[in-house]
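Quick question: what would this complex look like in 3D?
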Amino acid sequence: MSEKAVASRVTDRAQYGLCAGLALLGVLLLVDASHIGAVSSSNDPVGPRPVPILLGVLLLIVSVVYAIDIAHGGQGEAEAGEDVDLTTPIDVKTVGLLIAAFLLNALTIERLGWVISGSLLFWGSAFALGNRHHVRGLAIGIALALGTFYLFAIGLGINLPAGILQGIL
Amino acid sequence: MDNISALIAGFGDVLTPVNLLMALLGVTVGTAVGVLPGIGPAMTVALLLPITYGMEPTQALILFAGIFYGGMYGGSTTSILLNTPGESASVVTAIEGNKMAKAGRAAQALATAAIGSFVAGTIATLLLAFVMPQVVEFAISLGAPEYLAIILVAFVGVSAVLGSSRVRGLASLLVGLTIGVIGIDFVTGQQRMTMGIPQLADGIDVVVVSVGIFAVDEALWVAAHLRRKAAEALLAASGPATPSIAPWPNSSGCLESFFSVT
């Protein structure tokens, strides 16, 4: 067990990617801050520039410290949960399918409307998580999407996009 | 004494059946939402704000109070049964309550949390009503330097205490602050980190960030490590050593409260 833990510590190099992301964000902040005019007013003597510069510098420092921590075998604490089994490796297929379902919803919600894209989202998520009763999944998906559509419209006064079903719903 | 009689008259005005129903509705909804991990009482109130759109101010405030206390209690439920405190306020409940649940006394732990919340909430509200003038005096004496100091203490405390790794806490703190920088500076009107995208000029709404972090992220994380077999329930009370105080059998009480949450 402990050997395995040590091995996974050594091989978890994906964290360097996060480090690079942090450093990139820091550089981005500094570059952006250099474009901000050095304006200050009587009630805001600090102005809009120092905070992004401070954040950028801190991000660069933290990314370096983070990289040193990873080199020493540091690892984040994985979050446990009710349906989470941390002993299994990351299930790429399930995550990929779920991301695909989310993206499909984001791409189609304007054109097709929430009822269709939401049904696909619910059915797709259920499929990704292991549901194989397609008709039942789709029926529950449509019921949920229709229900939330009218709940938002009638209960909260928020009109979700109706898309191609405009005028029918 | 004027203030106290006004306070009591206020109770009289509020005590109508509709208002009490509002309180019940608020507590029910608040508990249901508060059970969700990551959504604390304040977040629950913020998310359910639109419900009160067409209500009178009195009823809206009563509903909010109900949602707030329900959310507080809902947080303790996950702490006790799942050992996952949804928010900082219920971490202490998880330390003690989850041990009780593992000993098969989840029902007692939940009841203690509810009664404890009620008693402490009543005392706190009473105190608030009586020391409010002094607190207000203190609060308006605080200026920008004091607020900055409080914010710094909060940020440093959160990133240093939460989680096991300080550098990761600091990293997430900085990413969050960077998200906060996006948008137009209120005083000078300068655009920061908008990359010329007009939609970013308004800044990024906290609801977008919280749904992105708590909902989407949680879904993907659970999907990545999905438990394919049934989880071990917290029904470890089969041993004869557990003393029973409640009138009902340990395991069934535990089971009921367990399923009422899931």
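Answer marked as accepted. The helical segments of chain A are 2-11, 14-35, 50-71, 92-112, 114-128, 134-156.
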